[in-house]
Amino acid sequence: GKLKIWVSRPLFPDVLARLAEHFDVDAEAIERKHSPEQVREKLLGVDAALLGLADRVNAQTLEGNERLRVVANLGVGYNNLDMPALTRGGVLACNTPDVLNESVADYAWALMLAAARRVGAAERWLRAGQWSGGMRFDDWLGVDVHGKTLGILGMGRIGQAIARRATGFDMPVIYHNRSRLPEAVERESRAVYVDKASLLRQSDHLILVLPYSRESHHAVGAAELGLMKRSAVLVNVARGGIVDDAALAVALRERRLAAAALDVFEGEPAVHPDLLDLDNVVLSPHIASASEDTRRAMAGLAADNVLAALGFGPRAGRPPTALNPEVMARWPAGGPR
Ligand code: GLV
Ligand code: GLV
User: Fold this and answer.
1) 3-class SS at 235?
2) Nearest protein Cα to ligand 1, atom 1
3) What interface predicted TM-score (ipTM) does this complex get?
4) CATH homologous superfamily for the domain 3-99+292-330
5) What's the pTM value of the predicted model, to 2 decimals?
6) Residue 336: what pLDDT?
């Protein structure tokens, strides 16, 4: 019979149609959160899955599964996937790198500008009809972006795309990363390597783009916030949990930081209630990659991975962005069951 695939989120119909040429497609028609037990049951019945970042795959959800061969994440980050457990089980994992770099970089800038110039709060004030009550010349003063020092924590391909955009704003760029970039890449992104404490102290605008891991959990907490300038703006487009949201709310309330902008949250879709009460933070629902072109490219790439991994199409046997391609050598001859 045909191979089966579970698509855990509603997806573009043309992508589903491509998958349906080779698979029985079980596609969720509505967006909903799946419990670990639901994920486990769905995965038991399929050869492949296209997953959202909220769907966790680990030893528990793979228990007793002899059939599953591929999980394709709809995103570049894959902290929802337990890679050792997948690799042990012979399951190929894929993500969607690169196709979203420029859109996420655009969005990081949108958040930085919005937070610095108070776009969200000013719009809420206008929509509430308050402008007709008058406005002072010194109302709504923000902090400048142009000419200030841009700091980037986590200097992968998205970080580099963010850095390249600084030229037109005459911003010097500093960065910190687990490993320093090759000199040629530093030159191209006009970015100067500094240690983490210097990055926190010197940045006027600090953008976080590092992957989530045990090591990056609360990489920016109370102590780190304490090193930042009172006039600084902090932007998180990386992952919830990299910032200690409770500590950030305290710093913002006490004006120990000018403003922040967050696209990701610890425990999202829940948002720390203290953040919701503050006017100097811009909040958005994890949409940094959500442009029409980029979300289509991500879905297409996830489908390309599944199709190629299971032997279909021009790249049969060579999925374009596999995270653990070595598992394919252990698949039974003639491909998956
Ligand atoms: C979004 O957060 C992604 O990892 O692509
Ligand atoms: C502002 O709108 C100005 O004209 O200065």
Assistant:
1) strand
2) 75
3) 0.65
4) NAD(P)-binding Rossmann-like Domain (3.40.50.720)
5) 0.96
6) 54
